[in-house]
Amino acid sequence: MLRIKKELIHQIEKQGEEGYPYEICGFILGEIDYENDLRTAVEVVQVENQNKERANDRFEIHPKDYLRVERYADEKGIQIIGIYHTHPDHPDRPSETDLRFAQPDMSYIIMSVKNGKASDWRSWKLEGSGFVQEEVEII
Ligand SMILES: [Zn+2]
Fold this sequence. Notes:
This protein has helices spanning 6-19, 63-76, 96-100; strands at 2-4, 25-33, 38-47, 79-88, 107-114, 117-127, 130-134, 136-138. By secondary structure, it is of the alpha/beta class.
């Protein structure tokens, strides 16, 4: 389960609308309780979408950004608990590409942005070889 503040969702909505019609992406930082499969988000950090050719339906995160955000989280005593990205004019469901890059124990927020307006969103997690929708508690 993912526990996340409403304010962080608002930040993702804003970033998604500003980045439209391209996909925007970033890291969800916080704490993981592995025993209870509970991730608590405390911060979101947007990073550049490195995929310039198909930025409308693909996103890529540079390894340097990964390292930089990991270090930043370390300094704050938290960790990367997930990744968020938008689907401009597409539903909030993971694509085949999303699945290919997914890692276990992480939350994947996918937010649909329709006609420039943030719309539905869901959080997904890897289970076996596929994604399942995960429960979200807004705090
Ligand atoms: Zn996607």
